[in-house]
Design goal:
The structure holds two protein chains of two kinds.
Chain A (H helix, E strand, L loop, with lengths): L7 E10 L2 E11 L4 E6 L5 H8 L7 E6 L2 E2 L5 H6 L2 E4 L11 H7 L4 H10 L2 E3 L10 H14 L4 E5 L7 H16 L3 E5 L3 H7 L2 E6 L2 E6 L1 H14 L1 H27 L3 E10 L2 E9 L3 E6 L5 H8 L7 E6 L2 E2 L5 H6 L2 E4 L3 H4 L6 H6 L16 H13 L14 H15 L3 E5 L7 H16 L3 E5 L5 H5 L2 E6 L2 E7 L5 H8 L10
Parallel strand pairs in A: 3-9, 3-10, 6-8, 8-9, 14-19, 14-20, 17-18, 18-19
Antiparallel strand pairs in A: 1-2, 1-4, 4-5, 10-11, 12-13, 12-15, 15-16, 20-21
Chain B lengths: L9 E3 L4 H29 L4 H27 L7 H16 L4 H29 L3 H19 L9 H8 L9 H19 L1 H11 L1 H6 L4 H27 L10 H11 L11 H20 L4 H27 L1
Helix pairs in contact in B: 1-12, 1-13, 2-7, 2-10, 2-11, 2-12, 3-4, 3-5, 3-10, 3-11, 4-5, 4-10, 6-10, 7-8, 8-10, 11-12, 12-13
Classes of the chains: A alpha/beta, B mainly alpha.
Amino acid sequence: MSGEAPLLDARGVAKNYGPVLALRSADLSVTPGEIHALLGANGAGKSTLVKCLTGVVRPDQGTIAVGGRAARPRSPMHAAKLGLAPVFQDPALVPDLTVAQNFRLTGSSVGAVRSQLTAMDLSVSFRELVGDLPLPILRMLDLARALTHDPQLLILDEITAALPSDLAERVFAVMRKQREQGRSVLFITHRLAEVIATCDRATILRDGRNVETMVPQEGGEARIVEIMLGPEAARAEKVASELDEAELPATEEAAEADAEPVLEVDDIRVGAVQGISFTLRRGEVLGLAALEGQGQDELFEALAGQRRLEGGELRVEGKAFRPRHPYDAVRRNVVLVPPDRLLALLPQRSVRENVAAPLYNTPLRWGPINMRDEGRRVRRAVEALDIDMRAAKQVRRLSGGNQQKVTIARWIASGFAALLCNDPTRGIDVGTKRQVYSLLRELAEDGAAILFFSSELAEFPLVCDRVLTIYGGRVTAELAGAAADEASLLQAMHGLQLDEAVA
Amino acid sequence: MTAAPTTAALEFRGATAWRRNLRLHGWTIAVWLVLLAMVPYWRSLSEQDFKFDVQAVAIDALPLCFAAMAQAVIVISGGIDLSIGSLMGVVNVLSAREMVDMSFRHALLFSLLVIVLTMLASAFTGLIIVLTRIPDIVVTLGMLFVWQGVALWIMEIPGGGVPIEYSDLAVGDLGTTGIPNAAVVVFAALMIVWVPIRWLRPGLALYAVGSNRNSAYLSGIGVARTRVGAYLLAGVFTGLAGLALSASSGIGDPNSGTTYTLNSVAAVVLGGVSLLGGVGGLIGVIAAAYVLTLSKIILLLRGTDPNYANVYQGALIILVVVIGGLLTRKTRS
C-alpha cells in the first residue's frame, strides 16, 4: 500500500477569513482503496479544509493533487468532475423543485441515480417535492447522486449525524464497496465509535493544522480524543470523566431521595406516540432511547408546547399543563433544547442577546426580573458553559459546539424546572460533548429535572439516571442508567424482550 | 457497532399525486376562476356590445400583463425590480419618437432593436446587483430614478406616434375571429419566450436560485449568472410592455410607466408567485393582471368615486392573498 501514489495529496492548505486563521497549514494524504477519517474538534479547521478540497472556497495557500495531477477545484460540481465528490451536511437539493427536476438541473441522469438508490436497497418517488422529504432521505439522495459521478474520492461530511441506524448501515456498505473497488472515502464525523469500526486511517486536525495521522484501531477512542484535544486538555478531560463516573452512583441515590415529580406524562397520544406515561422528577436525568420516527420528536414538541396532544394529560408540579404555545411551556418552566440549533437561535444577533432572550418574556422562577441583572446572568451562563466569545457579535459565526452551548445557556440564564434536551450533542465535537454531559449532571444535582434524548447510545450511561426505551409509540422498557449498555438498549429499542427482567 | 436491523428495501412515499398537483397549480386555477366569476357581474353592469367590451379590457390590460410577466420572472428567481415601470416609460417614449414617420415594416424591425436594448438595460441592472451585492430592492429603486430621467431626456412632453398598422397589433383583432390581438400577443409571448425556457435547464435554474440560493450553488448552478439571466429575460417582457403602451395609446409619455411598477407587484402576488422566490408561474400572473384590470373597470361602471376605487382594489388584493394563503397552508400539511 505504501508504494502507491496517493489518490489525494493536499499540502500546506491554508485559509483565513480576515483575522481569523481558520486553517493554518494542513496536509492530507489519502491512498487508493482506503476509508480515511478526518477528525478534529470544532474550530480545528475540518470544515474549512473540506471546503477547500471541494471548491466551495479558494485556499490562500497550498496545493491539491488528485491522482498525481494538480487540481484547483472551482466549485463543488467542478470538484466532482476532478474525482472528488462531496456530500455535505446540508443536501444540495432545492426545496421547491421535485427530485427529478433537481437532478435534471445538475445534469445527473435520473436513471443512474435510481440504480444507485436500488443498489442501496432504497426507493423514493422522484415526483416528490424536495421540501416534502425528510432530511435522512435527502442525504441518501445526495449520496446516490455523488456516486453517479463514479468518484475517486467520496467525501462524506457528517453524513451519519441524524441518520437512523438502518440508513447509516447502508452508508457504511457504500463506503466498504468504494474501498473494494480501489477507490477511497474521506469520512468526516464526530462519532469516534464509527471511526474505529470502519476507518483504515485517521487524520486529526487541531488549531488549523494536522497533528497526526494514525490507525484508529491501534489507539482507540481515548487516544483519538487525546490527540484532538492536545496533551494538557486530554489530561484534564481524563480527570473530568473519571469524576463523572465516580459521581454517577451518588446522584442515583440523590434522585431517589428527592422524588418530587416535576413533569408527569399520563398516557399521551400525539403523532406516532400511542400511549406513553412517565414521571420526570427533580434531580434526575431521564433518558429516552428510540429508533428514528418512534414518536420522540412529537413527544418533545408536545411537552414544549409546539404541538397539541391528541389524548392524555400532562402535569407540571402537580398542576394540569395544557400548553397551546411554547410560551405556555416556558412560563411553567419547561424549556426545550431542540435538535436543530438553528431553530433555537437568532443567528444574526449576538451571544448576549441570544442568551438573554427568554428573560424578556417569562417571570423568573427564583424572583422578579431585573434589567440590570441581565449582564450578570449572561456572564454567569457564558462562564458556566465556557462559551468561546471570539465571534460573540453574531451567533451564526460560532462553531456548532459553541452554538449548542448558547442554546443551553439561554435556559441557564433564565432558570427552569424541566429541561427537555432533544439530541443536544448532535454534530458537536468530543470536547464540547463532555462539557455538556458534566453540565447536565451538575444541573440535575442542583435540582433540575432533565429529559434527555440522544441518537448516540453510548451517551446514556454517562448522563442518565434512568432510561426509557420507546418503540411503536410506547415505552418498552425502563433501565437504570448504569445498566443501559448498548446491547440492552438496542434490544428494547427494537421492541424485543430484554434478557434480564426489568422493573 | 450496531447490527443492521433490516436489509429489506426501504420505500418512501410522500403526499399523493393530486394533492401535490393541487399545491402546484391550485392557485393558478383559482385566479382564473375568480376572473371567470367576475365576468357575469361585469356584463350585467355594462351596456356595451360584448365583443367591444372584451377588446377594451384586453387592450387596457396589455401593458400590465407584460409588466407583470417581467416582474414574475425576477421574483421567481428570488429578486424584485422596482424599475420596471420607469424602463417601460423609456421604451414608450423612445419608440413613439422614432416610429412617428416609419413604415410598418421598419417599425417592426425597430421594435426588435428596442427589445434587445431593453434586455441589455435590464441585464445591466442585474449585473450591478450581482457585482455590488447590494440588495435588489435598493439597486432597482435607484434605477427607477435613472430611467425616469432618461425618459424625460428623450421626450419632455407627450408626443410622437406610431404607424396605424402597428397600433392595430394592440387594438385590432385577429382576422374575423374577433379575438383581440392584445390577448393573442400575450399568449404568443408566453408560448414563444417563457414556456421553452421554463421547462429547460435555464428555467429550472431560475426556480432553484429563487428557492434556496445556497443549495443551488452547491448543486453546481452559477448563481450570479442565473440572476443576471433573470433580469435579461425580464427585459424582453419589459420591452414588450413599453411597446404595448406605444401601440395602444398611440403616443409617448415619459410618465406613462409610473403606475405599472407597483401594479406589477400586485399582479405577481395575486397570481400566486411567492415573493420569497422559487414558487409560481406566469399563467396565474396573466390572469391576475386581467383580474386587476377588470375590477378597475367594474368599479368605474358602478360609478364609484375614482378616489375610492383604489381602496376597493387594494382590499380585493388583500382578500385574495389572505384566502389563498390560508388554503395553501392547509394543503401544505
